[in-house]
Specification:
This protein has 195 residues and is an alpha+beta fold. The protein has four helices and seven strands.
């Protein structure tokens, strides 16, 4: 459903390079001086995304997505990617409804959940973090979370790579629960020589 867009990397790096050019030119005595006025964009890049824009983008990618909902002041989307249900929460939203960051989240209820397994996951995985909680009925569940900051001017397609990471790690977590439990023990503490 999602494919990696490696073409976004130059878009992210380009503004930093453009901002650094005047400083680089100033430190190079052989650099030619700028001639003529420099055109400055009067149009500001749109920052953030609305829940409706994210919903439309996800639907275009093939997901089933409910209308945005606000529960206790928190705006979210309920998503089904064809195999798993998960949520997207919106944070840092302005009065126009444009949000600066999102959080992918899932609540996984399964046998075999333990604090040791959650801790092992968090030690081994860099991006998607998990914690253990008890549901209202007392059954344990794992909550997985992945935060993504939005960049101005890139639109909803900037979610492509983070969504791929989310889906891959969510599937890996679920497959790890279904597979045999390989409880790991922490390595012994490192003892540093005292001089």
């Amino acid at each position: 459903m999602f494919r990696r867009l490696s073409a976004l990397a130059p878009l992210v790096a380009a503004p930093a390079l453009l901002m650094a050019m005047p400083a680089l030119a100033a430190t190079d005595p052989g650099a030619a001086a700028l001639t003529g006025p420099v055109a400055v964009s009067t149009q500001e890049a749109v920052a953030g995304l609305t829940p409706a824009e994210v919903r439309t983008w996800l639907i275009e990618k093939g997901a089933t997505v409910e209308e945005p909902r606000t529960i206790e002041g928190q705006t979210l989307l309920r998503v089904n990617d064809g195999s798993t249900n998960w949520l997207i929460f919106f944070y840092g939203c302005d009065t126009a409804g444009r949000c600066q960051d999102v959080q992918f989240a899932a609540n996984i209820v399964a046998g075999g959940l333990s604090l040791d397994r959650i801790n092992a996951w968090n030690r081994e995985q860099r991006f998607v973090k998990a914690y253990l909680q008890n549901n209202v009925d007392g059954t344990p569940s794992a909550v997985l979370q992945f935060d993504v900051l939005m960049l101005a001017g890139l639109g909803a397609d900037q979610l492509n790579d983070p969504t791929v990471v989310w889906l891959e790690l969510l599937a890996r977590f679920i497959e790890g629960l279904i597979g045999p439990a390989t409880e790991t023990t922490a390595p012994p503490p490192v003892t540093l020589p005292v001089t």
